[in-house]
């Protein structure tokens, strides 16, 4: 990798950049899956962890009745990209910089609240956003949530953690030492952040009625190590990169791409994991509480 490329992957990871392209590998498939289950003729929609605004953009085109589309998102780089993408919708859309662990009160009742590929980032404090959604959902509203459920091992590792473990091993870290490295760096494995479906159901039922669930497998394949490095930096940013000293980070991101390709050669794909779409309604289906 050249010096320019070396600089680029680290900057990309810090800014979570390149998501429009990278999300084609996995996250984009959630979009229509979720929008197909929005109640008829919605007026107000809130997207939590709205990223670069792709779901809101599609929803605004698809539902002419939508007059209040609101995105809450923490990353300033992603909000800036979303503003550009959504400018053509004028005042039908509003984007708020926000931490979903301390979400601001909004003066609305939403016909739909969506949250795709975000909940694991709020672990172990998911209940704060669940209580917020319950407060902001209209009596017949729907909370449409997608969650990932990779297998996890005895160290709580699953999904991307395994690719990172292989990458660290190829840089000379003993496999057995990786969980300790995660703990020392205060990096919680994604396999631990993503609760099991049963665990999550118990949590969701404290706030909502589970109207239905749908499952699909998210299978990721890549045509090159560089492409996976790009996907990793755009999706996970420097979450794992900070386990490695700055001078070795470019090597780390390259090793992640190479590890992904090795796995694909062995298994036919880099990763495959169940994704669940939860269709949730207010806890009191009659809406009397609201
Ligand atoms: C994997 S992306 C998903 C983006 C989009 N929902 C999608 O499906 O393409 C996760 C998003 O959640 C945002 N996020 C993570 N933790 C957050 C928090 N505490 N508050 C607000 N946004 C957060 C990230 O910045 C990122 O845009």
Structural domain count: 1
Largest β-sheet summary: 7 strands, mixed
The CATH class designation is Alpha Beta
The fold-level CATH name is Rossmann fold
Strand elements, count: 7
Name the beta content range.
15-25%
List the strand order in the largest sheet. Answer: 3-2-1-4-5-7-6
Protein name: Class I SAM-dependent methyltransferase
Organism: Streptomyces solincola
InterPro entries: Methyltransf_12, Methyltransf_Superfamily, SAM-dependent_MTases_sf
GO molecular function: methyltransferase activity
Note down, in words, how this protein is organized.
By secondary structure, this protein is α/β, with parallel strands linked by helices. It has a single domain (3-282), classed as Rossmann fold (3-Layer(aba) Sandwich). The chain contains 12 helices and 7 strands. The chain has a 7-stranded mixed sheet with strand order 3-2-1-4-5-7-6. Helix 4 links the parallel strand 1 (44-48) and strand 2 (68-73). The longest helix is centred in the last third of the chain and has 19 residues, at 249-267. The N and C termini lie far apart (57 Å).
Describe how the helices and strands are arranged.
Blueprint: H1 3-15, H2 19-22, H3 30-35, E1 44-48, H4 54-62, E2 68-73, H5 76-86, E3 93-97, E4 110-116, H6 126-136, E5 137-148, H7 160-170, H8 178-184, H9 190-193, H10 197-205, E6 208-220, H11 225-236, H12 249-267, E7 271-282
Parallel strand pairs: 1-2, 1-4, 2-3, 4-5
Antiparallel strand pairs: 5-7, 6-7
S-adenosylmethionine (SAM) binds at residues 23, 27, 30, 49, 51, 54, 73-75, 78, 98-101, 116-118, 121-122, 235.
């Amino acid at each position: 990798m050249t010096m320019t490329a070396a600089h680029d992957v680290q900057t990309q990871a810090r800014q979570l950049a390149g998501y429009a392209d990278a999300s084609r590998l996995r996250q984009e498939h959630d979009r229509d899956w979720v929008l197909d289950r929005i109640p008829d003729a919605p007026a107000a929609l809130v997207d939590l962890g709205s990223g670069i605004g792709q779901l809101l953009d599609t929803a605004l085109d698809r539902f002419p009745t939508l007059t209040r589309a609101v995105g809450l998102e923490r990353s300033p780089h992603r909000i800036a990209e979303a503003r550009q993408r959504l400018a053509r919708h004028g005042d039908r859309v509003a984007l708020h910089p926000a931490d979903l662990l301390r979400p601001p009160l909004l003066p609305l009742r939403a016909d739909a609240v969506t949250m795709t590929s975000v909940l694991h980032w709020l672990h172990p404090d998911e209940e704060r956003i669940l209580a917020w959604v319950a407060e902001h959902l209209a009596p017949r509203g729907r909370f449409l949530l997608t969650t990932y459920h990779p297998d996890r091992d005895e160290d709580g590792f699953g999904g991307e953690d395994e690719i990172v473990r292989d990458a660290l091993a190829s840089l000379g870290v003993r496999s057995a030492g990786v969980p300790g490295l995660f703990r020392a760096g205060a990096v919680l494995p994604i396999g631990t952040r993503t609760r099991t479906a049963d665990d999550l159901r118990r949590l969701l039922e404290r706030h909502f009625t589970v109207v239905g669930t749908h499952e699909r497998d998210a299978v990721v394949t890549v045509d090159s190590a560089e492409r996976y490095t790009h996907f990793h930096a755009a999706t996970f940013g420097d979450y794992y990169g900070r386990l490695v000293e700055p001078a070795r980070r470019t090597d780390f991101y390259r090793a992640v791409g190479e590890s992904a390709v090795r796995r694909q050669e062995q298994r036919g794909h880099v990763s495959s994991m169940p994704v669940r779409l939860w269709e949730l309604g207010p806890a009191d289906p009659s809406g009397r509480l609201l």
